[in-house]
Amino acid sequence: MSVDWDNSKYFKASEFTCSHTGTEKMDQGFINKLNNLREIYGKPMTVSSGYRDSTHPVEAVKKDPTSGAHVSGKAADILIERKNAYELLSLAFDVGFTGIGVMSFKFSPTSIYTLLFVPMAKKLSVKEVTQPNKARQVPSNV
Questions:
Q1: Which of 77, 73, 88, 90 is nearest to 31 (CA)?
Q2: What residues contact 48, with CB distance under 8 A and at least 6 apart?
Q3: 27: closest CA among 40, 11, 42?
Q4: CA 39 – CA 112 distance, rounded (Å)
Q5: What average pLDDT is seen over the chain?
Q6: N or C: which end of the chain has fewer CB within 10 A?
């Protein structure tokens, strides 16, 4: 099922295109949920990675490169400043995202976080993904 990008209020297909192949195969339900999150958040959200083809270098090294959340079009990495990360995390849980990975990067005096939004069977609490100084990763079988 392809995404109806004409009805995507905040995001464009080009933001989710695989950097390796140039293709985009995002899931409509996922994009709807991401648009809902953006609406409630009220601030721009920068997508750093969306769809990844199974041949993408990050996916190709996995045990099963065809089963990842990015490969199925049900994941996005969002760049966010540290000061806004907790708010976005909390809202993400409110709209139904249950699998969220947090990775911290320091490009400047302020931290930048990449938040990975994916569907997961186990619902995590905000506390579980916001422990200080710990990067959380989504299990590789998601």
A1: 73
A2: 77, 78, 79, 114
A3: 11
A4: 21
A5: 78
A6: N
Q: How many CA atoms lie within 13 A of 133 on its CB side?
A: 0
Distances in whole angstroms, Cα of residue 124 to Cα of each of 2, 16, 136: 29, 25, 11
Q: What is the pTM of this model?
A: 0.75
Amino acid (1-letter code) at residue 133: N
**β-strand partners of 112:** 81, 105
- Per-residue pLDDT averaged across 75-85, rounded? 84
In angstroms, the CA 58 to CA 67 distance is 13
Alpha helices in the chain (DSSP H): 28-41, 57-60, 82-94, 126-129
> In angstroms, how far apart are the furthest CA atoms of the chain?
42
Residue count (the chain): 142
Query: How far is the CA of 31 from the CAs of 9, 28, 142, in angstroms?
Result: 10, 5, 18
- Distance, in Å, from the CA atom of 63 to the CA atom of 114, rounded to the nearest integer, reads 23
pLDDT digits (tens, 9 = 90+) for 4-26: 999 999 999 999 999 999 999 99
Rounded Cα–Cα distance for residues 31 and 27 (Å): 6
